[in-house]
Amino acid sequence: MFEGRCYAESWPLRTAFVISRGARSEARVVVVELSAGGVAGVGECTPYPRYGESVESVLAEINSVLPALSQGMSRAKLQEVMPAGAARNAVDCALEDWERNKAGEVTAGPPWLPTVQTLVIDEPEAMAQAARAVADTGVSVLKLKLDRQRVLERVAAVRAAAPECQLVIDANESWVAQGLPALCTSLAEQGVAMLEQPLPAGEDDFLGKFEHPLPICADESCHTRADLPRLKPLYDMVNIKLDKAGGICEALALADAARIQGIEVMLGCMLCTSRAVRAAWPLGKLARFVDLDGPTWLAKDVNPLRFTGGRVYWT
């Protein structure tokens, strides 16, 4: 049924993206294009080495299912034959885009969504300066990337520079259990609204051993619905990303399952172009926190969405 192709792209960043695992200077994505009946659909994913993915491995996965798609393989079957991850995400989102274009739908939801703006790891003074500059544009929620060093000093500097902003913290698995309860209490006292993935995935059972003074969100620990039974006693929230879930189908199902189990939802993204943010759009109304600022880190975007004042507008 579908004619398709996939290819890789590299998008330079406007500045280095620094987290606890290191720095990146470009976003490397894989794009899937499908067409049938004169209608086209496009999907994008960001292969992530943390999950054992590379551009090459993802391209190979996608190419392996293109013949089945040409024979009319359904989206339901796609979920069975491909594992959750970046490759399935790109294909699933291309199919979703094709269906929406075939139906003539203009948007996938509301005309705009709120979004946090990320501040990467830097000296406290530099993070404070960045926070002040972003807050002056109207952004109301700042996401601080932090490692184990100078946590409270960096948070205090940002809080002083942007006192009206809500703060969330992403440790990207870099913290340790020792001293974590006291650190969480200090962060809550500084008005931090949420802490994301402080401990490594698979080594986070300690989170069930103390009362959380602020919500703790699973990112690297949460990929699909299958993860929820283990996570429920440990976390208050899960960060849903299409690249982890393997596409919009599983991401929506994960959001629904989390809601039923009383777990709040954050919507996230990788470093990506606006294509990937459009694909995640239907999840925005389901999330307490929306983190879709990936394209704002690019020096140049493709068919860009409009980011302004802490909002991203469908264009």
Summary, kept brief:
The chain is of the alpha/beta class. The chain is built from 10 helices and 14 strands.
Write structural notes for this entry.
The chain is α/β, with parallel strands linked by helices. The protein has two domains: 3-103, Enolase-like, domain 1 (2-Layer Sandwich); 112-313, TIM Barrel (Alpha-Beta Barrel), CATH 3.20.20. It is built from ten helices and 14 strands. The strands form three sheets. An eight-stranded parallel beta sheet has the order 5-6-7-8-9-10-11-12. Helix 4 links the parallel strand 5 (117-119) and strand 6 (141-145). The protein starts with a strand and ends with a strand. The mean pLDDT is 97.
CATH superfamily of the largest domain: Enolase-like C-terminal domain
Tell me about the largest β-sheet.
Answer: 8 strands, parallel
How many strands? 14
- β-strand amount: 25-35%
Strand order of the largest sheet: 5-6-7-8-9-10-11-12
CATH class of the largest domain: Alpha Beta
Query: Which range best describes the helical content: under 10%, 10-25%, 25-40%, 40-55%, 55-70% or over 70%?
Result: 25-40%
Give the averaged pLDDT, no decimals.
97
* CATH topology title of the largest domain: TIM Barrel
